[in-house]
Specification:
Layout: H1 2-22, E1 38-55, E2 64-67, E3 69-80, E4 85-89, E5 92-101, H2 108-111, E6 112-129, E7 136-149, E8 170-183, E9 188-198, E10 217-231
Antiparallel strand pairs: 1-3, 1-10, 2-5, 3-4, 3-5, 4-6, 5-6, 6-7, 7-8, 8-9, 9-10
Keywords: Signal
Protein name: Porin family protein
InterPro entries: Beta-barrel_OMP_2 (IPR025665)
Amino acid sequence: MKNTLFLLAVLILASNNLVAQFGKDPILNIQNEDKKFINFGYYLGFNQYDFQFEYENDIGQDILVEKSFGFNVGVLSEVRLNEFLDVRFEPGLLYTSRNLGFPGFTSEADALREVRSTYIRFPLLLKVSTRRFNNIKPFIIGGVYTSLNLGAKEDSLDDNSSGEFRMKKSVYGYELGFGIDFYTEYFKFTPSIRGVFALNDELVRDDDPNSPWTGNIAAMRTRGIFVNFTFE
């Protein structure tokens, strides 16, 4: 509910800006910004990551995921294909944290696992824009990414029996989103909302095939949402 209300607030603010821009005849800012064949910039933002679990057997008790907010930072390079299409490469650093609650344990030390992840991400995206309206231009964006999880602990000799939750270092998937370019007097400012969907199973299973932590998990994949603020 909190996430939904937040997204609605962002959309309302964006809509108010759209109305304001359509309701007057402003001076067009940085008119040649989108005519460059190659463009560069950077972005800052925040995220909230989750896990999607698939189970071997339906035992009626799901693993609980407590989410928190993390942050994103990165750079971008953009190649202009035509008036409406741009290809973007957005390498960046992303930090996030999730707490997992496993059912069937009486001890908190056994039931809870904190998963801290630092991802180095490499998204390759296609940006599809509308025509520019005064000083704004809405767009949708999507593509594929690969990332390296620096906090995965994939090579650790310990597992959950020793309190160590392990994940795979390499993750790949796709992301989809939308945003609005705002052309200010000196630069282009772009808020965007993205959904992130991993495709590969990220779980490294415990040595014991009947482990109460990982034995019933068929797959574990990241799902997330993040908001970026881009400056070009």
